[in-house]
Amino acid sequence: MARKSPSQKDLLARLADAGEDALHRLSEAPGMDKATAFAKSTRKQLDELTKRVQGISALEARISKLEKQVATLSKDSSKRSPARKAPPTTAP
After folding, report:
1. Which of 4, 59, 62, 78 could bond 8 through an S-S bridge, CB–CB 3.0 to 4.6 Å?
2. DSSP SS3 for 90
3. What's 65's DSSP letter?
4. How far apart, in whole angstroms, are the C-alpha atoms of residue 45 and residue 66?
5. Residues in Cβ contact with 26 at an 8 Å cutoff, skipping those fewer than 6 apart
6. With the CA atoms of 43, 45, 49 and 51 taken in that order, what torsion angle do they form, in degrees rounded to the nearest 10?
7. Which residues, at least 6 apart from 32, have a Cβ–Cβ distance to it below 8 Å?
8. How far apart are CA 49 and CA 65, in angstroms?
9. What is the secondary structure of 1-14 as a DSSP string?
10. Nearest to residue 35, comparing CAs of 43, 18, 16?
11. Coil vs helix vs strand at 80
């Protein structure tokens, strides 16, 4: 297992510190509270949309099942012989 040299550790530590500093400055930027609120509301909307789409998937499965049942029933009704009409009666 290779060990990191002190200069690599120093470089990684400096990068981590710079990233933390950038995030801190970004969080204090004007308008960031609005952007954060927008991101949170978007997440809630996305969660609701995901639930609705899952509901649609369940409905599609039910529709597919019902379509198969209708197809089966229509095949069965076409196999049946049509009702016979009574012969016309002649009046004397």
Report:
1. 4
2. coil
3. H
4. 32
5. 32
6. 70
7. 26
8. 25
9. -PPPPHHHHHHHHH
10. 43
11. coil
Check if the beta carbon of residue 32 is closer than 8 Å to that of residue 26: yes
Amino acid identity at 53: V
Distances (CA, A) of 58 to 53, 54, 83: 9, 7, 40
Residue 28 tokens, joined? 């204090």
State the pTM of this model.
0.38
Distance CA 22, CA 16 (A): 10
Three-state SS at 82: coil
CA atoms within 13 A on the CB side of 62: 6
Beta carbons of 20 and 26 less than 8 angstroms apart: no
Q: In the structure encoding, which two tokens stand for residue 83, read together?
A: 């009702």
Q: Where are the domains of the chain?
A: 36-74
